[in-house]
Write a structure and sequence with these properties.
- This protein is an alpha/beta fold.
- Among the domains are: 230 residues, 2-Layer Sandwich (Chloramphenicol Acetyltransferase), CATH 3.30.559; 77 residues, ANL, C-terminal domain (GMP Synthetase, Chain A, domain 3, 2-Layer Sandwich), CATH 3.30.300.30; 74 residues, Orthogonal Bundle (Non-ribosomal Peptide Synthetase Peptidyl Carrier Protein, Chain A), CATH 1.10.1200.
- It contains 23 helices and 36 strands.
- A 6-stranded mixed beta sheet has the order 4-9-10-1-8-7.
- The longest helix has 19 residues.
């Protein structure tokens, strides 16, 4: 500390002084007790709900009568601790403060260190690390100077001026009350260290104190009988800013009285011959797509007896079959529920059991993933007949009763209880979300949108269904095509893609690829959405160098429970900021920043984001208990408590700050660490465990066990969890460190050893056998940033800290070194054989791919009967 500070004072004025003094006298409370209680409330609000507060007060130190006549400095500062109950009224708190001060008199002559030594169980931050001190001064009517013989004595000012605008601050933060007995009025002074606070912050704190004093003591607005947590420090200009934040109500462009499949049919009527979806050499116009969708819908109705509102699961790789399946389920009145082909069989079975779905749509590559007791509908087999009956009656599709408040789809998200949560989204929710994004001009019916997201991520619903209901063209990628950057880049440029959505981690890898291949730009893009995780200014600046001048980059935020997106921010070029905000609410959405007592947080103060409006979900499937916890009613409207911590800046934009629990985002995927922990605890040899995110890239599992081993744990996780939830590293400890409360102390857990020397499941003596394997081995070490002695030729890439995005880097490193394209060796082959030995074999011998793509037949509008309802 330099000792430099600032001082700001304000007068109560006659009315507020009268109310303050009247309250003290009528409640038999001293001014000192009343002022100190006010100070505690100020600290409680400024620290965002801290209830264990401590401040220093001065005592005269003349605890014996004979000391009263001795000249000298007897003043002693003692800490006064207050464990504040936010549910007490201010009146009750004042009595508590009075009793507390009386009880502390016996310590008035104790040195501070002696007091602390008598309370060894209290953590140091309560007393020593506080940034606030309190001294109470009363004004006197005596002269400031007195003469004693030839000596002149004057009152020592609390603050010593260094310059006109600076003082020597003795404490970090001092609040002093002065009572002018002549005028019978009060004033306040805040002295604060400028090493800790800037002058603007102290000015705002002063304004908040004035607001709180008027709220507490003004006779027409007295709140002394209300709970302390209800007291507000929000300034009038901040109230206006918060109201402006939620001025998002707009009329729906086409009244939400219709449903997803009817909006799709409406687009077919508008431009039946427009290209709807394309995958490499396969394509369907809107009319052709509608025809196939109707055929599938009738099959679901007539052969599988699907009824409105029934959950129909689909486990299909990226393909035209996937698109037809989604829209076919919607047109049949069913509820679409995606299952990822990447998930293990055990998880797929668990999710189908959770939905109680009796039917799963599959295709040629996923039909063997389910047990025999589950009814499967192979979409591909519907199109194997040479001549589809053109006389199929479509009229029954118009008899299906579906409203905008029916559930349209269910997306599973990670659950802290160990079981995934099924988020139920209504037709109205999705239609309103898409309409909001169209209003922002994020995408329109003139756009060509590339479908990047996996089906386990709710963004794929926005990309596919959202694109169809506004009349866009959707470009699909082949299975695992999104991790083949050469293929993605060529697709964007050749298909003239204008809208791209992906997470920042993916963007970073894509930019490195573009730079390595000397690709100048992605000239067709009009909008790029890089939500899902935090972005950096450096990444955005670099991204803009590859985009045309009329292209915009967006930071879109939203959990699945708010229907994909709920806030947005256009990131400009040449940013002059440190952190990129998540923006403000989309049209027809509302955002509230709440503290733990569901009271609005002040501007710049961290709080939990609650989202209201047309996108709020219908609830968790079969979990009314979780739904009740997640939804809260505010002013007669339901809001979803996101668990995300945000703050609002002075421009009204929201900034993401983190989580209030152990949920994380990893490469855009939402993960409840508790689900991984419960999976590991199912292993009988593990008595305790904790999973943490490390360096924003890895999941690290710490397990307490005497005989568990890494291969067993990894195999167990791989058979029960999706790939993105499998820990990169397992650390086995005899005992997990505990804190004083008996809980696992995460801060004491050892840092993971990313050198991998103690974590490898394979024998390190299994070294590369020939120069070619040694070359592959060296490339692995470069990508994984590890020592060459730490990886064996039979170690799998994902067992040594690798993940899908690192695998993309590895694959394109191979392409650069060995000069081959994706047609010669696809990235999928390397994923299926993820060891150095297998990669060497693949690179030495070109494989043959026997997989035959499903042949699609072009259909003219006059060849099939379509029904537009």
């Amino acid at each position: 500390r330099t000792g430099r500070g600032t001082s700001i004072s304000f007068d109560f004025g006659q009315d507020l002084s009268h109310d303050f003094l009247t309250h003290a006298s009528s409640n038999d409370i001293s001014l000192e007790h009343l002022a100190l209680a006010t100070y505690y409330v100020l600290l409680f609000k400024l620290t965002n709900g801290e209830t264990d507060l401590c401040t220093g007060i001065n005592t005269h130190g003349r605890y014996r009568d004979e000391l009263n006549y001795i000249i000298g400095m007897f003043v002693n500062a003692i800490p006064l601790r207050c464990q504040l109950d936010p549910h007490l009224s201010f009146h009750e708190l004042t009595k508590h403060v009075r009793d507390n001060m009386i009880n502390c008199i016996k310590y008035s002559y104790f040195p501070l260190q002696h007091i602390l030594n008598q309370h060894p169980n209290i953590s140091n931050p309560v007393f020593l690390d506080t940034s606030f001190e309190f001294l109470l001064f009363m004004g006197k009517d005596e002269e400031d100077e007195i003469m004693l013989g030839d000596s002149r004595f004057s009152l020592l000012p609390l603050s010593i001026k260094i310059s006109e605008n600076e003082i020597m601050s003795k404490f970090d933060f001092i609040l002093s009350f002065q009572h002018d007995l002549n005028l019978n009025e009060l004033s306040c002074t805040i002295d604060a260290s400028t090493d800790l606070f800037n002058v603007e912050t102290i000015c705002i704190i002063t304004q908040r104190l004035q607001t709180m004093l008027h709220q507490q003591f003004t006779s027409f607005n007295c709140t002394t009988n209300k709970p302390i947590y209800e007291l507000s420090m929000i300034l009038s200009n901040e109230q206006y800013l918060m109201q402006s934040l939620n001025n998002t109500q707009t009329s729906f462009s086409s009244a939400p009285s219709t449903c997803i499949h009817r909006e799709f049919a409406y687009q077919v009527m508008k431009h039946s011959q427009k290209l709807a979806v394309e995958l490499d050499e396969q394509s369907l116009t809107y009319c052709e797509l509608l025809y196939y969708v109707q055929i599938l819908s009738l099959t679901l109705l007539n052969e599988y007896h699907v009824f409105p509102g029934e959950i129909v699961c689909q486990c299909v790789e990226r393909s035209l079959s996937m698109v037809i399946g989604i829209m076919g389920i919607e047109m049949a009145g069913g509820v679409y529920c995606p299952l990822s082909p990447r998930d293990p069989k055990h998880r797929l079975h668990a999710l189908t059991q959770q939905t109680q779905s009796r039917l799963v749509l599959v295709h040629h590559s996923t039909s063997l993933k389910f047990s025999s007791d589950i009814v499967l509908c192979n979409i591909d087999l519907i199109w194997t007949v040479d001549d589809i009956n053109s006389s199929i009656i479509m009229d029954c599709l118009s008899d299906i009763v579906v409203t905008v408040d029916n559930i349209a789809y269910i997306i599973f998200t990670s659950g802290s209880t160990g079981t995934s949560k099924g988020v139920q989204i209504r037709h109205r929710n999705l239609l309103t979300c898409i309409d909001s994004l169209v209003r922002l001009n994020l995408f329109t019916n003139r756009d060509t949108m590339i479908q990047m997201a996996s089906c386990s991520y709710d963004v794929h619903v926005q990309e596919i269904i959202g694109g169809f209901i506004i009349g866009s063209t959707i470009i699909m990628l082949r299975p695992q095509g999104n991790i083949d950057l050469d293929y993605v880049t060529k697709t964007i440029n050749q298909k003239q893609v204008s809208y791209l959505q992906c997470v920042p981690t993916y963007v970073n890898i894509l930019l490195k690829f573009l730079q390595s291949r000397s690709i100048a730009n992605l000239s067709s893009l009009r909008n790029v959405d890089i939500g899902g995780e935090a972005s950096t200014v450096q990444l955005i600046d670099k991204l803009y160098t590859y985009l045309p001048q009329d292209c915009f980059v967006w930071n879109i935020y939203g959990p699945a429970e708010t229907t994909v997106d709920c806030t947005g921010y256009v990131i400009g070029r040449n940013l002059n900021m440190i952190n990129i905000p998540i923006g403000d609410p989309l049209p027809n959405y509302r955002c509230m920043i709440m503290n733990q007592y569901l009271q609005s947080s002040v501007v710049s103060q961290e709080g939990e984001l609650s989202v209201g409006g047309a996108g709020v979900f219908a609830g968790y499937l079969g979990r009314d208990d979780l739904t009740a916890k997640a939804l809260v009613e505010i002013d007669g409207e339901l809001f979803y408590r996101t668990g995300d911590l945000v703050r609002m800046d002075n421009n009204g934009f929201l900034h993401y700050q983190g989580r209030n629990d152990h949920q994380i985002k990893l490469r855009g995927q939402r993960i409840e660490l508790g689900e991984i922990e419960r999976c590991l605890l199912n292993i009988t040899s593990i008595s305790a465990c904790v999973v943490m995110k490390w360096n924003d890239d890895y999941l690290v599992a710490y397990v307490q066990s005497s005989d568990a081993n890494e291969p067993e744990m990894r195999e167990h996780c791989e058979s029960h969890l999706p790939p993105h939830m499998i820990p990169s590293i397992f650390i086995i400890l005899e005992k997990l460190p505990l804190n004083a409360n008996g809980k696992i102390d995460r801060k004491q857990l050892p840092s993971p050893d990313f050198s991998l020397s103690t974590l490898l499941p394979s024998d390190k003596s299994d070294t590369p056998l020939n120069p070619f394997e040694e070359h592959i081995h060296t490339i692995w070490c470069q990508v994984l940033h590890c020592d060459e002695n730490d990886i064996s030729r039979t170690t799998t890439f994902f067992s040594v800290g690798g993940h899908s995005l690192l695998f993309i880097q590895l694959y394109h490193h191979y392409q650069s070194v060995f000069n081959f394209d994706a047609h010669s060796l696809s990235i999928g082959l390397f994923l299926q054989q993820p060891t150095i030995q297998q990669h060497a074999q693949l690179l030495q011998t070109l494989p043959s791919n026997d997989t035959q793509p499903i042949r699609w037949q072009s259909l003219h509008i006059n060849q099939g009967k379509t029904f537009l309802n």
